[in-house]
Structure formats: C-alpha cells, structure tokens
Amino acid sequence: MRVDCHQHFWRLDRGDYTWLTPDFGPIYRDFGPRDMAPFLQRHGIEATVLVQAAATVAETDYMLAIAAQNPIVRGVVGWVDFDAPDVLQDIERLAENSLIKSFRPMIQDIADSNWMLQAHLASGLADLQRRDIAFDALLKPPHLRPFQEFRRRYPNLRIVIDHGAKPNIAGGDFITWATEMRTIARDPAIFCKLSGLATEARPDWTEAQLRPYIDLLLEAFGPKRLMWGSDWPVIDLAGGYDRWHGVVLNAINDLSAAEQGAILGGTATSFYRL
To answer: Which CATH class is domain 3-272?
Structure first.
C-alpha cells in the first residue's frame, strides 16, 4: 500500500493556526481532501496520515472528524498539552478513537531545546508508552542531543522523527547533523520520515543539493525504518508535491522493489499500524 505518512488539512476560520500568517502566501488558505485528491490519484497513493498543525486539542478533534468521513486518511497524529495537569484525561479521551496513532508536541517552536526533558512531562509520556501510542518528534538540529537523553528516559516509546530533524540545508550544515542522526539511528526502534527536506533548502534548491541528506537518512535508518511523506501543503512553498515525490523516487531508484515499497508505504503502515 502506498502511503503518504505526513500531510495536513486546515481551515483558517478555525483560528488556531497561530503560525500561519498571510506571509506564507500560497498556503494561506483552506486545504481539504478535495484539494489533495489529484496528487494521491496521480501517484497511486492509497492512504495518508493526517498530522496536527495547531497546538490545540480542538484541532485534533477536527482532524478526527475529517478522517471519519474520508477513508483514505488511515491515521491521525494529534496534539495534547503535555505541560497541562489534565493531559492524561485528554489522552484517554482521544485514544478511544482508533484513528489516533500518535501525538506530536510542536517541539520546534519551543524556545527551550531541553523542554522534552522536564520531569513534569513524564506522566503523559509514560501514558503513551503504556497505551502503545506513538510519538512524532518534531525536532531541529539543536534538539538532537537532548533527544538522545529523552530516548534513554522513555525506552519503550515508539518514536518517529519528523522531516529528518529539519537539517539546515540552506546554510549547508551537514556534518554535525549527520553525525547526530547516525548516532540516533543506532537505536533500531527509532524511525524517521523522509519528508520536509525541501522546505529547509534555499528556494532555488536542486535535487543534487538534497541528495546528501536523503542518502544519509537511507544509510542511517534503512528502508525498514524510513517512510516517505509529502508534508503537503507546506511543500507548496518549496517546489510542490510532484517535484518532491519525483526527487525521492530518483533517490531510491537503485533499491530493490521491496525496499522501495517499504519507504513508500510499508514502513508507515507498520509503524502507525494503519
């Protein structure tokens, strides 16, 4: 099954996408299933994972309602406030819905790179471990060292790193990011998304500029722990769905059919239990 493991829908009048301003131009509008359908049909994608884009529980309910009406959405990555005293109640309520596959705090937007190590977060994270619900780690390079300690504290938490930890491709930073990612990937239970890289590059990016980062993720995680995602509609800021999909197909062209199938759907199906 072909799977897009990372996509978004949003409706501006909901009012909780605080990051989404008119400065974002082409993506500052509503996006729903009808907008995405042509891409899925064109590339033979049979299922998607719908990922939170707002730091509210209300948006998670909004996504679950969409998923209930659109069978192609096989899973939802939601949001809860891990800092809140009532986080366990929110997790319990949302986890009653079988479409909830993971939760994602917006770590990239939290000023403290050590936020994930705060002691008061332990109850919510331990609850995810107990329920066997996954955790999407929305990291940037400054988070990679704290993340290694985070992993030691929650060894049974099923984790996928979003967007390859968003390396600074535009700035040409590779070596430190690559070293940290290789270290993290030694843990065979950590997965990674092959997504979001184009938006970290310069607007005039070329395929050759992205390939070292894609190749590093392929080397470090391997096809069985790597999953392709579009990050649509954010990818419209950096070349669009079709171009990013084509870049990844070229990058994995020399792999076996089974390995390509894992990256393009099998890994996501297994990890998210779609």
So the answer is: alpha beta
